[in-house]
Amino acid sequence: MATFLYRLGRLAFRRRWYVALVWAAVLAAVGVGAATAPAAPDEASSMSGIESQKAFDLLEQRFPGSTADGAGARVVFVAPDGQKVTATDSRAAIDKFVTEAADGSQVSGAVNPFQAKAVSKDATTAYSTVSFKAKADDLTDTSKKHLEDAIDQARDAGLTVEVGGDALATQPAAGGSAEAIGIAIAALVLIVTFGSLAAAGLPLLTAIIGIGISMASITTLASAFGLSATTGTLATMLGLAVGIDYAMFVVSRYREERAKGRTPQESAGLAAGTAGSAVVFAGLTVVIALAGLSVVGIPMLTKMGLAAAGAVVIAVLISLTLVPALLGFWPNAVLSRRARKRGRVEQGGENNGGSRWARFVLRRPVPVLLLSVVGLGAIALPVMDLQLGMPGDEVKSTATTERRAYDDLAKGFGPGFNGPLTVVVDARGADDAKAAVRTITEKVGDTEGVVSVSPARFNPAGDTAVFSATPSTGPADEQTKKLVHTIRDERPAIDSATGVTFKVTGTTAVNIDVAQKVQDALIPYLIVVVGLAIVLLLVVFRSILVPIKAAAGFLLSVLAALGSVVAVFQWGWGASLLGVEETGPIMSMMPIFLVGIVFGLAMDYEVFLVARMREAYVHGDRPAQAITTGFRHSARVVVAAALIMMAVFSGFIGAGESMIKMIGFGLAIAVLFDAFVVRMAFVPAVLALLGARAWWLPRWLDRALPNIDVEGEALTHHADPAPTPAGETDREAARV
């Protein structure tokens, strides 16, 4: 692989115009495709294998048209203090609103709260449901303006009016200005690392090109594959981070080869063959981990994983081709100003920050190891209280009308009103369907934790009924989860007594079932990912203990990251600093997605850092000296890469959407733990204690394993044997 990439790097350097034109053509093609592609459909919420989805499917089958997915708005009216919505003026204003709202061109109906008994017991709150014929994305500005005008008229009458639902909901921005700040910090880190604006700008440029291609491709394919805005945001998050890092690794190795006096073209080839090999392997681990999310069986998670994996593949391809091509255009511009003046790059000294830190750890391996393990273990403790769910409007900012509508409904009708359970009764084959349904309604209504049940509604065939049960607790409350399990646990006895069966569904039940499915899949997926890490690193490093050490470090960093997420977003520690106004359960899909991404990033740092140690050990360094050599060559770049990723991920903490905010924080803190605690402290401490045993591998296994050659040992047969004299590099640069 190293030889192939070496030749590819030289070819891209030599044929730079062709390479640049090809990537420009790709960007233009997908850009045109994105501009002309049809709008993506709403993201499907189908979830196979869970009871709530089976109940929903039965509902669609037996009640045709009852699950129409047009947009809706729940308009909540609250009377002024000390007054009631049933007062003459307030009632007249609400009646007028219903009449005005129903006249909208895309409105299919508006419910009068006084006719539908949608008034609270104390008569301080009422709500009207406005249904539309079109989906939220298809509503015209005129339709939205018509509804907003009707709402404003009700407000002018003295009522407090808030709106829930998706009709007027705004799509939250992914990162906004915070994301731009993250990119600016990444640029600053690159400038400090390389001491050159060109060297700093090149990784940013290629990463942005890669993201442009990725996002345009996602938009082009969105309609065909149902890719949502969330899918694109996560692909942007990861694609931008790895795109900068992978290009930076190649540029760094190019500068290192120039330091040895090699020609620009030869340096580009060697950078692609050595750092490029590590980029391919690191990118492969990320892709495998992301693609592996499809085995969980959650469509949304599968789409996010595959889209992000595609963005990583594009980042790898750009690093291997476009980066060497751009180096061909400006072979000396990426060097520092001092190096350009001298006409040759100075090689790094023996005593830089990386080597000094390595020697510090080598002198005190046991304290460093204990401190890192105990520290991360303590931070990981909150994981034991991990509660998964799918928070809704209750975790939005109080500045949003959706959150205020949620609070008003909870205050007027009880916290469980925002998350009713839908019970679907399959009475096909029953002798007396109505009597059986009546019995089930009474049994569910008598369950502790249910405050009310609605009258059952039958389908035209009379063999299926549906009714709702309102819990006494909110949709994200742990007691609501227990209530759903209680109703289902009592089902066998009810089924045997009535001769019919029923299923529990609704948004609340779906969220509970999804959380349970993810929680059940988390440990198996973690085992698969750790096993994969051990196998891949066994092939790369040809060692038994190094992969085990890497997997243990990965577990420490990912558990500590999850513990931090629980502490902030569930317990509320420091939540206000991140703009989290309401704590609650952790987003169901977040932990398993975090595991997949952190695995890939952890392997990135492991490969780039430990590969240089193994290279030094193979070439004769003592074990301790090999650790110092690896840190001297790679620590600075790995630290810069980690800072860049933290900056990019932190930018998404400013997102308005809870899941993006949560994942941005989780990834940023995971990179902090993995790069600065695990790879910089835990890894060298373990290797120092193991000594030469760290690189032991049975001979039979050594013969059986394929030779990946991440370090590029085979390139010694292709590389120029002697460095060029000072000044010759400039003549070569001018000639090529």
Automatic annotation (TrEMBL):
<keyword id="KW-1133">Transmembrane helix</keyword>
<feature type="region of interest" description="Disordered">
    <location>
        <begin position="716"/>
        <end position="736"/>
    </location>
</feature>
<dbReference type="InterPro" id="IPR000731">
    <property type="entry name" value="SSD"/>
</dbReference>
<feature type="transmembrane region" description="Helical">
    <location>
        <begin position="207"/>
        <end position="227"/>
    </location>
</feature>
<feature type="domain" description="SSD">
    <location>
        <begin position="197"/>
        <end position="329"/>
    </location>
</feature>
<keyword id="KW-1003">Cell membrane</keyword>
<dbReference type="InterPro" id="IPR004869">
    <property type="entry name" value="MMPL_dom"/>
</dbReference>
<feature type="transmembrane region" description="Helical">
    <location>
        <begin position="553"/>
        <end position="573"/>
    </location>
</feature>
<dbReference type="Pfam" id="PF03176">
    <property type="entry name" value="MMPL"/>
</dbReference>
<feature type="transmembrane region" description="Helical">
    <location>
        <begin position="366"/>
        <end position="384"/>
    </location>
</feature>
<feature type="transmembrane region" description="Helical">
    <location>
        <begin position="585"/>
        <end position="605"/>
    </location>
</feature>
<feature type="transmembrane region" description="Helical">
    <location>
        <begin position="304"/>
        <end position="330"/>
    </location>
</feature>
<feature type="transmembrane region" description="Helical">
    <location>
        <begin position="272"/>
        <end position="298"/>
    </location>
</feature>
<feature type="transmembrane region" description="Helical">
    <location>
        <begin position="522"/>
        <end position="541"/>
    </location>
</feature>
<protein>
    <submittedName>
        <fullName>MMPL family transporter</fullName>
    </submittedName>
</protein>
<feature type="transmembrane region" description="Helical">
    <location>
        <begin position="637"/>
        <end position="656"/>
    </location>
</feature>
<keyword id="KW-0812">Transmembrane</keyword>
<feature type="transmembrane region" description="Helical">
    <location>
        <begin position="180"/>
        <end position="200"/>
    </location>
</feature>
<keyword id="KW-0472">Membrane</keyword>
<feature type="transmembrane region" description="Helical">
    <location>
        <begin position="233"/>
        <end position="251"/>
    </location>
</feature>
<comment type="similarity">
    <text>Belongs to the resistance-nodulation-cell division (RND) (TC 2.A.6) family. MmpL subfamily.</text>
</comment>
<dbReference type="InterPro" id="IPR050545">
    <property type="entry name" value="Mycobact_MmpL"/>
</dbReference>
<dbReference type="GO" id="GO:0005886">
    <property type="term" value="C:plasma membrane"/>
</dbReference>
<feature type="transmembrane region" description="Helical">
    <location>
        <begin position="662"/>
        <end position="690"/>
    </location>
</feature>
